[in-house]
Every structure is written in C-alpha cells, then in structure tokens.
Amino acid sequence: MFITLGRFVAHRARLILAIAGVVVIGFAVLGFSVFGRLLNNGFDNPKSGTEQAQSIIIHKYGGAPNMMFLVQARHGTVDTPEVAASGEALAHRLSNDSRFSQITSYWGSHLAALKSRNGDYGLILATVKGNDEKAGDTAKGIQRDYANLDTAATTVRIGGALGTDVGGQVGKDIARAESIAVPVTIVLLMLAFGSMVAALLPLSVGVVAIFGALAWLNVMTHVADVSVFAINLVTAMGLGLGIDYALLMVSRFREELAGGSTVEDAVVTTTATAGRTIAFSAVTVAAAMAAMLVFPVYFLKSFAYGGIGVTFFAALGALFVLPALLTVLGPKVNAGKLPGIKPGRTPAAPFWGRLAAVVMRRPAITALPVVGALLVLAVPVLHITFSPPDERVLPKSSPSHQVGDILRNDFATQPNAIEIVLARAVPDPAVAGYARGISQLPGVQFVDTSVGGFSAGLRTRALEPAPALARAGSERLRVFSGLASTSTAAQQLVKRIRATAAPADTTVYVGGWTAQIIDSKHAIGSRLWLAGLLIVLTSFILLFLFTGSVLQPLRALLGNGLTLAATFGAMVWIFQYGHLSSILGFTASPTDTDMPVLLFCVAFGLSMDYEVFLISRIKELHDHGAANADAVVTGLGRTGRIVSTAAALLAVSFFAFGSSHVSFIQYFGLGSGLAILIDSTLVRGVLVPAFQRVFGERSWYAPPPLRRLHARVGLADVGPASASAQ
Fold first, then answer.
1. What is the pLDDT of residues 687-714, one digit of tens each?
2. Tag placement on the chain: N or C end, fewer CB within 10 Å?
3. Cα–Cα distance between 393 and 97 in angstroms, integer?
C-alpha cells in the first residue's frame, strides 16, 4: 500500500505540488473567514438544569444579570449625596439603553447585597439582551460606549462580561504565541537539519495542516457550535505535527540517499517505512482527539473537530506534499548549508544508543527512580478541585478580574443569585410555601419571588416587582446567600434546593453560577469513563495492528498513564496551589473542569505519536533479524534524536501559550509541553528500554489466534530493502 503510494507520488511529484498549491490557497481563503463564526463560550452542558433555567430566563424574563457596573465612592460612601446622584444618573442612563433588558441598582433597590460591607462600593446589575453569544457581541459595543464613566464623585469598573473579555484576549494571545513560536522553531529547525532548504520542509506540512484545519472548522461551524479556543490547538498541533512528520520523513530520506539509493527509491522506501509510521501515528492521534466528542459541552467537541482536522491534513501533507517535494529536491534537500553544521548528518545519536545500552544492563536501577519521580510529581492530583472558568482566568489588570476580587473580598453577599425556575404557572400559596421552605435552608439569606420576599421562613418585601418574577406561565425565584459561589457549602445548598419538594404539576430548574459548577462536573465526570475506554481500546487495537504484540500496547498505555499523572500533578501544583503565579502572571484558582480532559486527550495522542515513531524502527530492525536487545539499542540510537528534537520543537509551540493572559490557555500550553518532554525523554529513553530488557523476546508476544489475525489484517512493514534497516 505505502510502496504504491510512494511510487505514485514520485512519478507525479510536480502535478501533486501544483494541485496542492491551488488547494492550500482555497483552504486559506475558506479558513481565514472562520474567525467571524467562532463562539466564545461552550463550557456548559446544553441539557443541564442550569442551561434549561437560563434558557427560560432569557426567553421569558430577558435574561439574568450578566454585566456589572461597580461604582466606587471617591470620598465618603455610596450613600453620600453626590455619590448617590452619580450612581442614580448612571443607572438611569443604562435603563434608557435599549441593549439592556433589565437594570437593578443599589440606589434603586437599596438591596444590601449590592453594597459593600464598608459602604464604599455600590453595584448596578445589568442584563444584556440575547443568548450568551448575542449578548457577548452586544457587550463588546457596550464596553466601548461606556469606556470612561468616572466622575468627580465616583470611579466605575465594568465586570461580568467574561466570554467577551476572554474571547478578545485569546485572539491577541494566539498572535503573540505564534510570534514567539514560529521564529524560535525556524531557528531550531535550521540547527536540527543543518540546511535552510530542509528546515523549511516542516513548515510546508504545517501550512497544509493549519489552513486545512481552519477550512474544516469553517465547514463545521455550519452544522455545529465551534469554540474560538480550538484555534489554539490547531495552530500548535499544525506546526508541531508538521515538524514531527517532516523530521521523520526527511531524516529517513537522507539516510536512504546516503546509503546509495536513487531519489525515486529513497522516496518509495521513505514512504513505505516512515510514511506507514506517520499514517498509524495520525490515526492514533485522531482517535485520542475523537474521544472528546463523547462530552456534551461544545468547548471540548470543538477541540475534537480541530484536533481531528489538523491531524488529518498534517498526515496528507506528509504523505503527499512532502514526498513530492523530496522527489523534486533530491540531493538539494541539503542545500543552504549553515556554517559549522553538517547538512547531511546522520540521524543516529550515540547518546540515546548508549543510554539504551545502560538501561538494558541495569533496568531496575535506572527505571525505578524514574517511576518514583513521576509518581511524586503526581501526588498533588489527590487534592485537585474543579470549577468552570470565571474572571480569575484573566490577568489582574482586567476590569472584570478586579470587579470579581472586590465582590469576593468586600461584599457580604454574592450578587450572583441561585436562580430557580418553575416551568409552569403555580398558585400563589404554592409559590409562597415553596419559597418559605427554601428560605429556611442553611446558608440562605433571602428568597425573592413574585408573591414577596422570604427570609428564615418569614415573608417580607420583594426586591423585584411581581411581573419581573412571574411571566408567561412560569415563576422565577432568586435565592441570595452569603456563601462563596465556588464553595462546597454553596454547592451543598444547590443540591438541597434541588432535593426540596417542588410545587405540584410543575418542573423545577435550578441555575446560577454554583449550579453551573455542579452540572459542569457532572457533564465531564459522567462521560469520563467512556472517553477513557475509547482511547484505551483504540490505542490498544492500533498498536497491536502496528506491532503484532499485545504487550507493547500495554506497555505504551502504562507509560502514558505515568506521563499524564505526573503532568496533572505538576499542573495542580502550579495553577491550583499558585506556584509560579508571580512569574506567569495568573491567579491561583480551582482547575477548570474541561482542562484535564483536554490535556489528557491531547497529551495522550501526542505521546502515542512518539510511541509509534520509536517502536516502528525497533520493530523494523527486529523483523530484519536483529536480536531484541540490539534492535532496541540501535532503534533508539537512530530515532532518539528525531523524537527528542521533534518533541522539543512541538513543546516550543505549546510552551508559547504560556505567554497567554488567560490562565486556562496557559494551563493547556504548559501542560501539553511538559507531557511531551516527559514522554520523549524519561519514558522513551528509560522506561521503554527497561521494559524491553525485562521481557526480552516476550515483549513481542501475542496469542496464536491474535498472531493469525495480525497476519491477515495488520499492515506489514514491507518494501524495498533498506540499507539502513540492517
């Protein structure tokens, strides 16, 4: 199959390049128009109680407060006449703005929850019309129009527009990350290849991958919601996989030329060996990305779309465009020699071969300390806590972050109430009885309803007029507490509310920030086993088809498990505990519910990428008659430099996102980069040789029925004799 592909490309190289050029231009035109179609949210399960409550509130009540105007008194308190006049004037101006459906101000309601403990801050809660995405677009204009609201008596900060703030920041961060990653990558590529021409080849695959994936995402936006955050994965993986695949192909091509092969034979052998490895690698990576499709949140689905697309197009570029370029270039692949670096140097790396030899002489002494170190790194995972992203993912200089900090530190009651929606009209006595019971739950300070307010079981004055809380055959109750929204106590309160008997003949939906935390954790936790099972099964099957062994897939899965455990532990230590926060400029906070899943799928897929790179060469040597020990030492010696160089370059692409001003993007970038480095060094360099030494020839074992199955359906690594295989 791959021999035929190699010959096909070698005989039609210029035609393939011409077609590829036209196609890439089309991808670019289609791809660049995707940015206007991407969405800023996608962290919630659309079928959750939170989303059902929010949908009813938006359609029947104009929405819940989603923007805050925090008014600070320059002198005195918010009740000082000149401060109050300034606050009332702003509230009046906002009330006359048609983009808002509802305005609730401290000066209009005198609600204690909208006033800070010491009286120097007052809040105006605003509800921007439309669903999350429409409200986000509107909020951008509002932020521009109300950019300077300070007066002689007050200063004003705008908060609450999280999706707008994060989405706008991500666009800037992608440009910044690429401005860092691309120049550094080009320099490292020139050092790795030793020639200008060879160094540019990975970029050709990267261009095909990125433009193709952007065009694919554009197509997907017409049939599904797609998050803007998927662009981070597309750019990092597109460049990274282009480097990985090109390093493997170009190194093998050079090796074949150095062994005396003609250009055509070198291309055919390279495609039959390295090309086969890339095909298996791409399928394995794409399968890991596809596991995110099982989750109901479109944030993760979007990364699946982007990951599958960028992997597919990277493989196409590596299997068609790159061999065509190598056919046209021939020996000129080494042109553009850099001073002091031999352009055609062999990929063999004595260091990695010597390391493998040392490990295989003393597998326990070398492997156990590595396993111990990885397990120690994993310890912080035992204390991980989760929450959807809030304004703390933004830098401290962001007004939204500043407003959130003030609300947490200076206000006795959080203004973001727990929202309860009764989906059908309920008699007033039933509403009152239900609200009275809710008001008596631990942690509840006040329940606002259309039939009055309730506190500790007693009726009092309502904060909102009845029409604002009873519309179109539904009832809306707002529950205020003094509990931090992310606290365990607040989550227990939401669970108690959901467990409280509802009025007859109605359905109750509970929403708000705390309910969203609970529903987000459930959306991930309830599907996590399925995603893990799919990844494990597909990886096992693909590695079995690739190697013909049942022990090699098990060894790879265990190695990936250690890598991921250590990476997750390090990320908890950094981002949840707050270590390195002063360097990276983030605020310590609970782990975003979606990030471990994303990191797991991406890191697992890329780890399998390097697994296939390494084991393919070892298996090739073993199949050509080399003893197991010799195959491991020689195979690692010949692929160690490729794997480590590819990993270092891919890590640069991900580490560049550490420059982001959104903490969960930093988490994703640093976590992915760290996992890649751990896997390509400690796991591939130490644990793989140790395993091969302990199990010896048995490491290639498969039961007879599976051996026969592999002989029938496994893609054998056959092709022209290769001088380098011996």
1. 999 999 999 999 999 999 988 888 877 6
2. C
3. 29
